[in-house]
Design a protein that fits this description.
Layout (H helix, E strand, L loop, with lengths): L1 E6 L5 E7 L6 E6 L9 H12 L2 E6 L17 H17 L8 E4 L7 H8 L4 E5 L5 H10 L3 E5 L1 H4 L6
Parallel strand pairs: 3-4, 3-5, 5-6, 6-7
Antiparallel strand pairs: 1-2, 2-4
Helix pairs in contact: 2-3
Length: 164
């Protein structure tokens, strides 16, 4: 396991943990939800499940959250979370980790289609997230049209926000 800091598009530091799997079948990006951080038990559980199945894991703290990355919590927005995710995926690709066919986990639902849209644009082929958004139907439709597998579970089971 390696912890490092990369810079996002705003030149803020993002804390990243990479767990290389010698049997690598793919790459999994595991991102916390609002008010979360990369070492939360449920985030680690999901990362371990992917690792045990042969995936290299990339966990990170978004900026403007309570983790180790730069920024203030009161400045947190969904947009900065998605931008940080895009920047981490871009960093992984430029570091030699193949992102084609990668999977992504978010411990919350997508309130809009821009989050999954950004993942799809970066080559993500499987997305695991909770359900419960009024836009779930739109998110499912977007993923279906892009031939991306969307796995959703009840918000009360998958979501880490507010200790659900």
């Amino acid at each position: 396991m390696e912890k490092l800091f990369i810079k996002n598009r705003k030149k803020q530091r993002i804390a990243v943990i990479v767990e290389l799997n010698s049997q690598q079948k793919g790459l999994a990006f595991v991102m916390h939800g609002l008010s979360g951080f990369k070492e939360q038990p449920h985030v680690i559980t999901v990362a371990e499940a992917f690792f045990e199945r042969g995936f290299t894991i990339v966990r990170f703290d978004t900026t403007n959250t309570i983790g180790e990355s730069d920024g203030k919590y009161e400045d947190a927005t969904l947009t900065n979370y998605y931008q940080d995710l895009e920047d981490v995926i871009g960093w992984a690709a430029s570091s030699g980790l193949s992102t084609y066919g990668a999977v992504a986990y978010s411990d919350s639902y997508f309130p809009e289609t821009d989050g999954p849209g950004a993942l799809i644009e970066k080559g993500i082929k499987v997305i695991l997230a909770s359900s419960g958004s009024v836009r779930d139907k739109d998110v499912r439709s977007l993923c279906q049209k892009a031939n991306v597998t969307l796995i959703q579970g009840p918000d009360s089971k998958i979501r880490g926000f507010s200790c659900h």
